[in-house]
């Protein structure tokens, strides 16, 4: 393989800088081939013991999508109850999912009982299977952004309820509910930072021992 060029390195850095968690989508559909290309990035991802424990469910039926949106609304209302005063007012003003508008909903699971990889690395630390799925999602996130698509990760959900509604096997745990579509805006600043909820910390928390 030839070395990557300076221009590629610069573009890659820009890609990471411009990747955002997107919650504001236009309703323009996503081309099927492009979506499949995004999902194909899972094949390139590292996984503990090469277990490839990711399981992907495209949530396409109106019924399943409606149940997921209702799940989010209930969970979000419950989450709001955990805040008081100014923080509660701010939380209620945040847009924390683009589920209504996003043309594509993808639920990503980890098969905690996969035999692929024969337990290598996961016998001692079974959580590594789930971390492998998270790593794969990040590859897809970047690939989507490189193609102009936005992706938003929704975790304000009752996971067992979602697993039941999507009728997935008991060994699958929910890792991510992803909304994919064309972003309304692009920015180098996380939306939570713009909204004043939180900001990126300047300290990387690196220690030496
Ligand atoms: C595991 C995970 C779960 C997340 N869940 C949510 C969520 O439920 N709702 C939301 O609005 N953003 C969610 N986010 C997005 C984060 O808020 C976002 O990554 C963070 O604010 C930094 O912004 P950026 O991704 O645009 O850099 C999640 C991100 C991750 C990595």
Throw out a few tags for this protein.
39% helix; binds flavin mononucleotide; alpha+beta; four-stranded antiparallel β-sheet; 209 residues; NADH Oxidase; 13% strand
The residue ranges in which pLDDT falls below 50 over 5 or more consecutive positions are none
Fraction in beta strands: 5-15%
Instruction: Please tally the helical runs, counting DSSP H or I stretches of 4 or more residues.
Output: 7
Question: How many E strands?
Answer: 4
Structural class label = alpha+beta
Overall body shape = globular
How far the N terminus sits from the C terminus, by CA atoms, comes to 36 Å
CATH-derived architecture = 3-Layer(aba) Sandwich
CATH superfamily: NADH Oxidase
Largest beta sheet: what is the strand line-up?
Answer: 1-2-4-3
Using only C-alpha atoms, the radius of gyration works out to: 18 Å
